[in-house]
Specification:
Low-confidence stretches: 1-55, 69-121
Largest sheet: 7 strands, antiparallel
Helix content: 10-25%
Structural class: mainly beta
Strand content: 35-45%
Number of domains: 3
Mean pLDDT: 77
Strand order of the largest sheet: 1-2-5-4-3-6-7
């Protein structure tokens, strides 16, 4: 039998070569896994070192939606296969409500992956993150919350990332899960991503913390009690109530069992409120006569503040209408709820030590512990009264009142 060469027209030769190329391309693609990397993008695993670009019809649920250029970067490993955007579809990681998206390279290669259809026509809108409070200048430490909200019909918030060192956050930064405590001037940067990967631009909030106070020196009374102090404006105040039982010269400050002392002349007494165990926290209660005795109840170089010195303090904090909250210890460890407006931003740490008094209905008794804190001033109003200052659990202001001198009040000393 005689073999003869078969002549093939040039145009058929070109077609055969293209078919061979597509056939080789089909064998090169080994789709071990496929998942979404963003809108219009599949990720496949291949094992070839060539590069090809082909036109590929794009199918959704076996219905052709168009044709896009498919770039095959087929070095070994994971690679993107990019194709034209799918109208009215958002490609996200496979999960419930799946549809099938197919990319066909000519008639030989098919890469298939499952994706969720977006009923809204595709979520391409980034979420929005709102801080509370917003940045600004504050006189106390702040607790900041970050609230992420996605657009109506969106895929939902995924995660919020933040930094507090001034650097721009990334997906490797801290993930927000609880309120952020800021006690010094801080630049907070943050962003959120939704569950399909839409990411908002980085936002920046600066929190400038300018405290009303700084730590003052410690001081010790004649009984050996050690007090911390706080510098507020131009004044230095004890940040604890006085608890001494002697004058500076060593003479005892008398005490009594509860009885009516209103008829006594210049009664000089001190008491523990209810029991001695309370004095470590709340200090003692003193009559005006004991607190102003020339022998000195306050330690050396310290004194009972005048009415004017109390006014200097509250003026520095913005006036009596707002100073109370800044002067009260925050929380309800010692104050009963509600401890309205209390943030102790002054460092004064006012406690509700109550007072000792006599009245017609209850006789002599201790009262108002947990409800209010009452402090003496050295200034007489009219006999037999003196000016005082009072903080209340139900108010953020400071009360300036006149009370009789034989009632027992707390004492805060101020430095000379």
């Amino acid at each position: 039998m005689e073999w003869k060469c078969l002549k093939i027209p040039a145009r058929w030769t070109i077609i055969l070569i293209l078919v061979l190329i597509f056939g080789l391309l089909a064998s090169a693609l080994v789709p071990v896994s496929a998942f979404a990397a963003g809108n219009g993008t599949l990720m496949v695993i291949t094992r070839d070192a060539s590069k090809k670009q082909i036109a590929a019809p794009i199918y959704v649920d076996n219905v052709q939606k168009g044709t896009g250029k498919v770039t095959l970067k087929v070095t070994t490993g994971k690679h993107e296969v990019k194709f034209g955007d799918l109208a009215e579809y958002t490609l996200i990681s496979p999960k419930g409500g799946k549809i099938t998206v197919q990319v066909k390279a000519a008639r030989t290669t098919m890469i298939t992956a499952a994706y969720k259809k977006s009923s809204s026509g595709g979520d391409t809108t980034a979420p929005t993150t709102t801080p509370s409070p917003a940045g600004g200048t504050f006189t106390s430490a702040q607790t900041v919350t970050l609230a992420c909200a996605d657009n109506t019909g969106g895929a939902g918030c995924g995660a919020t990332y933040y930094t507090i060192d001034g650097s721009d956050p990334t997906a490797s930064s801290s993930v927000y899960s609880a309120p952020i405590s800021i006690s010094a001037t801080t630049t907070l940067k943050f962003f959120s991503k939704d569950s399909v990967g839409n990411q908002e631009t980085v936002k920046t909030e600066t929190y400038t913390i300018t405290l009303l106070y700084s730590a003052g020196p410690q001081v010790t009374d004649i009984d050996g009690n050690v007090y911390n102090s706080v510098i507020i404006g131009t004044q230095t105040w004890m940040k604890e109530n006085l608890k001494v039982t002697k004058y500076r010269n060593g003479d005892a400050i008398p005490t009594t069992t509860p009885r009516d002392i209103s008829g006594e002349t210049s009664p000089q007494y001190q008491w523990a409120h209810n029991n001695e165990g309370d004095t470590a926290t709340y200090g003692r209660l003193y009559t005006w006569y004991a607190a102003t005795d020339s022998r000195g109840a306050c330690p050396a170089s310290w004194h009972l503040p005048s009415d004017a010195e109390w006014t200097t303090l509250t003026d520095y904090m913005g006036g009596v209408d707002v100073a109370g909250g800044k002067m009260k210890e925050a929380g309800t460890t010692h104050w009963r709820s509600p401890n309205y407006g209390a943030d102790n931003s002054s460092g004064f740490t006012g406690l509700p030590g109550g007072y000792y008094q006599y009245d017609f209905y209850y006789g002599n008794h201790f009262t108002m512990m947990g409800e209010s804190g009452c402090w003496l001033s050295a200034t007489v109003s009219y006999e037999p009264t003196a000016w005082t200052r009072e903080l209340f659990r139900i108010s953020g202001d400071v009360g300036r009142h006149v009370y009789v001198k034989y009632i027992g009040y707390s004492v805060r000393c101020v430095k000379d």
